[in-house]
Write a structure and sequence with these properties.
The complex is a heterodimer of chains A (126) and B (368). In chain A, 23% of the residues lie in helices and 35% in strands. Chain A is built from four helices and nine strands; from the N terminus they run E-E-E-H-E-E-E-E-E-H-H-E-H. The longest helix of chain A has 12 residues, at 114-125. Chain B has 368 residues and is an alpha+beta fold. Chain B has a domain at 7-52 and 138-227: Gyrase A, domain 2 (2-Layer Sandwich). Chain B is built from eight helices and 19 strands. Chain B has a six-stranded mixed beta sheet with strand order 10-11-12-9-3-13. A six-stranded antiparallel β-barrel of chain B has the order 14-17-16-15-18-19. The relative contact order of chain B is 0.15. Classes of the chains: A alpha+beta (126), B alpha+beta (368). The A-B interface holds A 33-34, 36-37, 39, 55, 57-62, 81, 84 and B 27-28, 32-35, 219, 223, 287-289, 291, 311-312, 314, 319, 341.
Chain lengths: 126, 368
């Protein structure tokens, strides 16, 4: 498993072989508040880096979920659709959103390390 | 940006702030909207609603006559310390504001929405003329304490409040200073609203917290009032909706319908001829949430209305919404479609409220 990487849209991604697992960060869930709805991309669809690939809604508002990396959706996490509060409880673990067959592994190079993301998240909150 | 006297206390309790009607108000504290919602339904919640207007008008029977020319409410049959929900309307029966009028010993107290209070003040002042002293308080805070445990908590610091019935109030004391308490609120729970001097409000709220109540933000206030089927001014009612269209006919006193308040002619017409659109409850199928401005369609893809409020109802544990639909689609269980992110989602018209109220003794059955 690769080191976890982060996007400016507050998604995380890990890569094992050529399959990426993607979710939203703990920081994102803290900004959103209680998540009450999640919509995921359909299996078999192709998504493009920085394009929309789902929706989450909190009690307050709806937010798009973007994919930090391009590829074909090979799996989605139905358990967060059934119980969206799981996203608040374990955003960077069990509550992953979808898995992609990665199109171009080089795309991951433009993403941030945890340290860089934490700095980015702190600055963008202030 | 305006701040209420409780601003620093909100900050101390890790509030997230939003700008609302020119005020920096707490939308939630650290546990979040759903936890705060549930605390209010199950225990007790404290809401800072000091941004709302507290209007005082001094006068006797002549004032009552004059106010009856402004509001569609029977004020002559109101006893001292009794409150009624009412409207300030334009000539077309469009709602300038929804408000609570309370008869007090030397006149009337009217609680106004924050975004409307300055305009309301000017309208009411110009209609009253020069004969009555009218003032929009700057020295008073307003705190709502809501939920089943509230009566016992608040009785400990303000003995006697528990005797108040729903939509009645009275003079009480906190720290030997005068306060005014009504048994009312906007959450669907039993509760109180306390009008208290800015200098005393922090200690008052801190005392309630120490007794076990909890600060609740505007986010939970919104989900609570939506579950209770109550309108948010600016979303669900405004200058383009009448009380009849908003399904609030109950708030227009029967013996006042044929009198001369602004909008009376339109109200009479709508009673006789019916309304073309009506506010209804809406339940989307599944978990999807329909927000304000979501378009509503019939099965033939004709637009028949619009959502005015929508969120997730933490107590009913499903998405809920309110909106206006054409008058032929108002029956319970009517199937409708909501356009959300380009897709049509099934929904059905349902009865309001979504959540059954627990008002004290149910003397006045508001909203049903």
């Amino acid at each position: 498993m690769s080191e976890v990487k982060f996007s400016k849209e507050h998604e995380w991604v890990t890569i094992k072989d050529d399959v990426a697992t993607i979710g939203i960060t703990k920081h994102a869930t803290e900004l959103l508040g209680d998540i009450v709805f999640a919509e995921l991309p359909e299996k078999g669809t192709s998504v493009t880096k920085d394009g929309t690939a789902g929706v989450v809604e909190s009690t307050k508002a709806a937010s798009d979920v973007y994919t930090p990396i391009s590829g074909e959706v090979v799996d989605t996490n139905q358990s967060i659709v059934d119980d969206p509060s799981k996203i608040n409880n374990d955003p960077e673990g069990d509550a992953w959103f979808f898995k992609l067959k990665v199109k171009d592994l080089n795309e991951i190079n433009s993403l941030m390390s945890r340290e860089e993301y934490e700095k980015f998240a702190k600055e963008s909150t202030n | 940006m305006n701040k209420t006297a409780l601003y620093n206390l909100h900050k101390k309790f890790n509030a997230k702030f939003v700008s609302f009607a020119g005020y920096e108000m707490p939308i939630q504290y650290k546990d979040g909207i759903i936890a705060e919602h549930n605390l209010t339904r199950e225990k007790s919640g404290i809401f800072d609603v000091s941004h709302m207007g507290q209007l005082f008008i001094v006068g006797d029977d002549k004032l009552t006559d004059k106010l009856q020319d402004i509001f569609p409410t029977d004020l002559k049959n109101l006893s001292v310390n009794q409150s009624r929900y009412s409207f300030l309307m334009n000539e077309n029966a469009g709602i300038y504001d929804d408000l609570i009028i309370t008869k007090i010993s030397n006149g009337y107290m009217i609680i106004l929405n924050a975004a409307c209070k300055e305009k309301d003040f000017e309208i009411i002042k110009s209609k009253l003329g020069e004969d009555f002293k009218i003032s929009l308080s700057k020295d008073l805070s307003l705190v709502a304490v809501q939920g089943p445990d509230s009566k016992n908590l608040i009785e400990k610091i303000i003995p006697g409040v528990n005797k108040l019935k729903f939509m009645f109030g009275g003079d009480f004391k906190f720290n030997s200073n005068k306060i005014y308490v009504t048994r009312s609120g906007y959450t669907g729970e039993d509760g109180f609203e306390i009008s208290i001097n800015n200098n005393d409000v922090v200690e008052f709220v801190e005392t309630l917290i120490s007794l076990g109540s909890n600060l609740i933000g505007l986010g939970a206030r919104d989900t609570l009032r939506l579950e209770a089927g109550l309108c948010l001014y600016g979303n669900d009612i405004d200058e383009n909706t009448s009380p009849l269209e908003a399904n609030l006919k109950w708030a227009i006193s029967k013996n006042r319908i044929n009198s001369n308040f602004p909008g009376a002619k339109q109200i009479q017409r709508q009673i006789n001829e019916g309304v073309t659109k009506l506010r209804v409850g809406i339940k989307p199928e599944g978990k999807i949430i329909a927000r304000q401005s979501t378009k509503i369609f019939d099965e033939n893809n004709n637009q028949i209305g619009k959502i005015t409020s929508g969120s997730f109802g933490p107590s009913v544990k499903s998405p809920i919404a309110m909106g206006y639909v054409n008058n032929t689609y108002t029956k319970e269980n009517t199937k409708i479609f909501l356009e959300i992110r380009g897709k049509k989602v099934s929904a059905s018209v349902c009865k309001l409220p979504f959540y059954k109220k627990n008002y004290h003794k149910g003397d006045v059955n508001v909203g049903s």
